[in-house]
Design a protein that fits this description.
Blueprint (H helix, E strand, L loop, with lengths): L1 H7 L1 E3 L4 E4 L15 E6 L5 E5 L5 E4 L5 E5 L7 E8 L5 E7 L4 E5 L5 E5 L18 E4 L5 E4 L6 E5 L5 E6 L11 E7 L6 E6 L4 E5 L5 E5 L10 E3 L2 E6 L3 E5 L5 E5 L27 E6 L5 E5 L6 E6 L2
Antiparallel strand pairs: 1-2, 2-25, 3-4, 4-5, 5-6, 7-8, 8-9, 9-10, 11-12, 12-13, 13-14, 15-16, 16-17, 17-18, 19-20, 20-21, 21-22, 23-24, 24-25
């Protein structure tokens, strides 16, 4: 299979070359995607796709065989998606629902363990000022951070039991302020853990410490960063304006994958005619993850979903 894929389609740069796994991840009859928003891999390299259909979490094995689906409660609202190994050594999924205004922690099979809604902050939220959580991440100490990326543009910190600790951010472009904090993750590549926020409409990444204090910006080689996946010393960033960006440990550009600078300029984007899409080009990247072999899985913001696997050349 690898030889055929290599002959068919290869993308990337000298240090990061990938075979496009054409047709990977077939859905069984009766199951279809809504908007594909997030993707995660577990310790066994099973792949979990978060989408807005009634089967909001769809699970494949590494070879692309369908394993299971669940998550009807997330239909229409599925958005943020994060897999974390908690301090008990078990893996859990953390999901956000933009319709219900919830962060939900589940087992890998979908058993709900925790639900956290908007913090009790009447100074921030009321009938007109909605809470619309777009992403979630978990710090090494178990604290949970939820980004209100479509609401009032704050990041909220909770402890592992869901008790509110603090909020930071707020609308603006000054240090510490954000506009559409769409994605959030924990950077463990340095001496101290940091919070990376995809400050999307400011066209940058903003970095905070775990108490929510601004540290620095990452502003180069980004357009509309959606979210993050840290793999070794690298960070993978789906850019909604039609490319996947990979940065090194110092957040310097390694490469853009699948870049199509015409896609997001097309009338009707992101839901373009099917004839437009090409397997080696991306249109609206929204979520990404990397498995233990360095293979990349990317999902796009398209009404009936799109999932691409890229097999890293050794």
């Amino acid at each position: 299979m690898s030889q055929t894929l290599t002959e068919t389609l290869t993308i990337g740069s000298a240090s990061h070359r990938y075979d496009v796994a054409l047709g990977w991840g077939k859905l069984p009859e009766g199951i279809s995607y809504g908007y594909t928003h997030g993707v995660c891999v577990d310790a066994d390299d099973n792949v979990y796709v978060h989408n807005t259909s009634k089967d909001a979490v769809i699970v494949f094995d590494k070879d692309g065989s369908f394993l299971s689906s669940w998550g009807e409660a997330f239909e229409g609202g599925a958005h943020g998606f994060y897999l974390h190994t908690d301090n008990d050594g078990q893996q859990y999924l953390y999901l956000t629902d933009i319709n219900r205004g919830l962060m939900v922690k589940t087992t890998l099979s979908g058993e709900v363990l925790l639900e956290v809604g908007a913090p009790n902050r009447p100074d921030l939220y009321d009938a007109e000022r909605r809470y619309i959580p777009t992403d979630v991440c978990v710090a090494p100490n178990g604290d949970i951070y939820v980004s209100d990326g479509y609401g009032q543009y704050y990041i909220h910190q909770f402890d592992a039991a869901g008790q509110y600790i603090r909020s930071f951010g707020g609308r603006g472009s000054e240090p510490g302020q954000v506009i559409e904090p769409h994605g959030i993750s924990i950077n463990l590549r340095g001496a101290e853990p940091e919070i990376y926020v995809a400050d999307r409409r400011n066209h940058r990444i903003q970095v905070f410490d775990l108490e929510g204090q601004h540290k620095r910006f990452v502003e180069h080689n980004l357009d509309l960063p959606c979210s993050f996946y840290f793999f070794g010393d690298e960070v993978y960033i789906p850019d909604l304006d039609s490319r996947l960006t990979i940065l090194d440990k110092e957040d310097r550009l390694i490469t853009h994958l699948g870049e199509d600078q015409q896609a997001y300029k097309q009338e009707g984007w992101p839901n373009l005619p099917k004839a437009y899409y090409r397997p080696d080009k991306f249109s609206s990247p929204h979520g990404v993850c990397v498995d233990s072999s360095g293979d990349v899985y990317l999902v796009e913001w398209i009404s009936d979903g799109r999932l691409t696997k890229l097999i890293r050349q050794k």
